[in-house]
Amino acid sequence: MIVALLGVAAYQAYWLEQLHFTIGEQMDNDIREAMRVADLKEVFLRLKGIESKGPHGMMDVRAGIEEDGSITAKTVTTTQVTVGDHTLEQKTGVVLRSSPQADSIADDNAFMKMLEEQISVTELASMIQQGLHLGVDRFEGTRYEKYDSLLTAGLQQLGLNGNHRLLCIKADTVFSYTTPGYIPSKAARHYEYNWDNYGRYELTIEPTTGLVLREMMGILIASGLIILLLSVAFFYLIKTILKQRTLDEMKTDFTNNITHELKTPIAVAYAANDALLNFGGQADEQKRRHYLTLCRQQLERLSGMVEQILSMSMERRRQFKLKIETISLNELLQPVIEQQQVKADKPVTITTHIEPDNLTIEADRAHLSNILNNLIDNAIKYSMGEAIVEITATPSTISVTDHGMGIAADKLAHIYDKFYRVPTGDLHDVKGYGLGLFYVKTMVEKHGWTIQATSVKGEGTTFTIQWA
Question: Is pTM beyond 0.70 here?
Fold first, then answer.
């Protein structure tokens, strides 16, 4: 998937680079075309001016294709010269010729072949324009300042509103038109347009990269969004896969753990029952009571495990609803505390601080009892030696505090995950299967409450539930 994503990104980058190059080439061609069009407009403006002043002579411009495939433009200018009482005609001719073509196209289908070749048509038009330029130059010189204004307008139509420098070079004469204060940088681009063998225009402007990028902005944004969405989707997919992998590992650990937990009470109950049946335990009242008590304790333990697993399944049902009622916290806590003290396998001291004494809360009695049972049970299990547990309740919160081993800060964020158990290295003194705190958080949230845990490694942990 990483290779595929990098491949898409690389291809996208390559495609954008090629597009940037293509648009840049098109921009260069547009600038050269703007120079040619500005020259043509300047020639026609001079031509109109000459016509308005009366007849000055004749100009004949013809273009064609020679036998060697070259394109020629012939310009013949006829002017009237007055000598004494006589008026004489003076003809001046100029021939422009392109380079011969490798494959001559001068045959019966020469014109059709020329039309098929766009370069030849463009060259023909350029030759005609140059011939026209030379003919008009016989009557009136080039208006360089007018050309500069026409070129500026053409560049602005392309979106090039920046500074430029224009050199008009004819023979040994140079006319310069530069935007005030403009000094070309080393990266400046240079463009030329030759109107004949003796004259040309040289344009200098800054690189058009910014304009090209602005034209590509929509594509760049779309491409960036596509890459971003692919990256987000890829990240989410990887995160989901890792989460599923972790969940699968936790489920495996849970299965192994719960199997062991279930086998223990079954084995103890089986052994006690076997002693009653096969070793005369029923004849001794004291032994019989002891064995039956063992069976009852293990069955209660087994029932508790099954009940908690069923609770995990029940809380996921959509039709699951809490049975909210007004509960006296003191009355609810007393049997919970007694139950925990009876089943504990170590000395336990549980103190309560409830203010006011008649504090009540709106909650589901069964699930609130299970919540407190889980928190107190964890406080006892994770206390080394005697378990000292403090329960504090106010009109808005209830907290359960122990003075046990505590939880490391980097593990605190995961304690509510399903099947998660804080790693204890090679020690397995504390039994459990990673469902207790998951159940607690789920039920707390279903009540619309919040729960927060604070812990110091080696000093203890406090769980605080807030409902108002």
Answer: no
